[in-house]
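Sanity check

After download, print the first record. It should look like this:
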Amino acid sequence: AFAEALQCFQQALVRREAIGDREGMVRNLNHLSDAYRQLGQLQEARAMLERCQNSLDAGDSDAYLAAQITANLGNIHFEEENLAQAESCWLSALTVFDQLLVVFDKVAVL
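Expected structure tokens:
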């Protein structure tokens, strides 16, 4: 199922890139990262999240989306046993979730 999802997200990413939908591209990259993570391909998952961060840094970014990506990057670091980096990502994401009064994502990080 995740291999099929990976193909769908890759196709959607190509289409979003073609029309210049930056936020849609970031969301697709985030979904691609999750599919790669579920398949145990952590390096690829991390690379997708780093592309997300680079895209968000290049323009006006959605703070909520950026925090979700940072939290997901923390999850990847945790699975790679980079605990200090995981903690840093999670604390950064939690700070934004607190500022935005977001509870659901905050609970997911905790």
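If your output differs, re-run the checksum step. Summary of this record's structure: The radius of gyration is 14 Å.
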